[in-house]
Amino acid sequence: MTFDDGILKIYTTINTAENGAKPLLKLQLKESYYFGFDVMGINRYFTALQAKSQLEHVVNIPGWGDIRTTDIAELEDGSQYRIVMIQPQMDEAGLRITKLSLERISNSYDYYIETPANPGNTGGNNES
């Protein structure tokens, strides 16, 4: 299996609003992975539709990282996706991979950037 379709960034969402204010979610970088697109089977597609989810991509990444369905995935073109399903498995060579089912989100998140007002951010960036 190859992971030569690009780099997939995984972000966690953090609330950057002041205490007591309406939540303001921004993205903080967790990890980056090389990835490969996978075939989205007809069963996967229609099962997602029944669950009112519009899957757009299925991608494979190496390893079994700390990825959650509350995280946001971003492709190199800057498009952001909700992670609908995470499937850790072994590939045909016996290597650990993770298959992610991705659904495009309509409103993109902004990025959390460290400033003197919000120190301690170690993973946020402003790259797409």
C-alpha end-to-end distance: 26 Å
| CATH topology (level 3) name | Thrombin, subunit H
Q: From the alpha carbons, calculate the radius of gyration and give it in angstroms.
A: 16 Å
The total beta strand count reads 7
Structural class based on helices, strands and sheet pairing:
mainly beta
The CATH first-level class comes to: Mainly Beta
Q: Looking at the structure, what is the overall shape?
A: globular
CATH H-level superfamily: Bacteriophage SPP1 head-tail adaptor protein
Helix share, percent: under 10%
User: Would you list the SSEs in sequence order as H and E?
Assistant: EEHEEEEE
Number of domains: 1
Annotated CATH architecture: Beta Barrel
Taking the sheet with the most strands, its summary is: 6 strands, antiparallel, barrel
Account of the 3D structure:
- The protein has 128 residues and is mainly β.
- The protein has one domain: Beta Barrel (Thrombin, subunit H).
- 7% of the residues lie in helices and 45% in strands.
- The chain has one helix at residues 42-50; strands at residues 6-15, 25-38, 55-62, 72-74, 80-90, 96-104, 110-111.
- It has a 6-stranded antiparallel barrel.
Features:
disordered C terminus, six-stranded antiparallel barrel, Thrombin, subunit H, 1 helix, 128 residues, mainly beta, globular
Short description:
This protein has 128 residues and is mainly beta. It has a single domain, classed as Bacteriophage SPP1 head-tail adaptor protein (Thrombin, subunit H).
